[in-house]
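Re: duplicated header lines in exported structure tokens

Our pipeline writes sequence and tokens for each protein into one text file. With two proteins the header for the second block appears twice in some exports. Here is an export where it did not happen, for reference. First protein block:
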Amino acid sequence: MSRGSVAVVGGSIAGLAAANVLAQRGFEVTVFERFPTGFESRGGGLGGVDRQLYESIRADGATLRQHGPGGWFYGDLWRYLRGGLPDDAVRHGVAVADVGDVAAPTVDGAAYDFVVVADGGWSSLRRFVVGDQQPVYSGYCLWRGLMDLERAPSFRSFGGHRSGYFDTGGFPISCADGRTLYNGGFYLRMPEDEVARPASGAARQVGEKKRALPDWYLPLYEKLWSHVNGGELVRLWRAMAEHGKVTQHAVWEFCADRVVNGRVVIIGDAAHMASPRTGAGAYTGLLDAHGLGVAFDRHGDVDAALAAYAVDGKRRANELHRASLNVKRQFVDPSRPPVPARELLAQLEAGGRQCSLN
């Protein structure tokens, strides 16, 4: 017997996790995702995952298989969670911009007992819970690289390297389709006017395409990291730029003032955005989904369960936000404004050393 109907808006990791958890508990769940296709081949890597948590979340409890050493490919984790739901549970190509009355929400013309909003850090529906509250730029960016490992020049170690406020490193990812990828990252302080605010809606689909790197990027990377292991990091990133994909991901931070309003719940990045250096962004999204399940295990009534989740989910968002602020202190000194990238490169080429490098 169904316990009611739920709409989940957003079909990424957090949304699919919530859908699995609620389906386990007898709800009829429909997931609405604006992208026209699934995410099997999308994304980069996670250094580690809580396999027990994933397996407790998937509706049929299937085993999450590690395909080899290294990290986990996002697309494989997405496929695992998608596999726990019926084929018709996810509706692709449906953009949801309104839920109507939060006390009796509707999605795509149909009424639901409650709605879970999991449409990401630049959510179009978060406003129904937190109003005008928006993410804040942290002061630094992650430049993420991804390529087939076979295209990488030989190098001795993956690891990580730090120099003052700059940080770089990476790890291999073994994928379900047999590929091995290299997932690299380079953290760089940048003024806010040098970063692009992420696109939303249909424009985000275009953003999946490879963009040209700024002409200063590789020369700056070389100036900062040519001293490491005989320049192997520089050779690695030049290979990623040529054979793979290198993209800018400005680090935005967000902690929702509340996570429930009426019968609308926000989870995942819609409720909290944090630095990738916390290693807990996607993990906290999974914990949100798990927390919804716990709330419904303890409270049979929808309103009572959502009231309990409102406390638990807000606590989790606060904890992640504190962790992200702690990481921020490693990269951002409020007394030293970030130097624009081109200016920093010019200073390095001239042989100067900036206080922001030490």
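Second protein block, exported in the same file:
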Amino acid sequence: MQVKVYTDGSRNDSDCTGSGIYIKTHNKELKIQRRNPAFCSVFRSELIAIDEGLDSLSSFSCSNEIWILTDSRGSIQHLANWHRVRDNIGMNILNKLKSLSVSYRIHLQWIPSHVNIEGNEIADALAKAGADDVSVPSAPLTYLELFSRAKCRNKTIWLIPPVHHWYKGSRPCGCLSVDCNRRY
């Protein structure tokens, strides 16, 4: 018996994002929608959906195969470069995949969006409903995600202005010096 996990992320006109997860076996299905934190990107929403889908697998009895089906090529490419993943959600996903791979064959597969693949259409509808949900999101963004978001919107304004003199350096190869010994 195989388990199929369809995931999707969505943003509405109010810049709110949501994640949708649809898990299906031959005799059981589970639908999950969630609202994501303010300023969350669609990319992060896709990763949140994959992470939540992996968490939800504990309620399913899997015999040998788990298929994670997403319409986000970016998410798959991000996870494929596992040695460069530094974000919390990406690390959570990789750790869960590692522990699940001991007992199951896991397939992470890209599928095209909006071509009437039933599971993907359900996950898409759940993600849109999650974005429109008025409930309070549960996972706040980390400092680096907020910083990155603020920096992307306006290249000249920093979220927290830098105060150290080395931020103002105008030449390449600048370095930091710390007055302490190697042990510290």
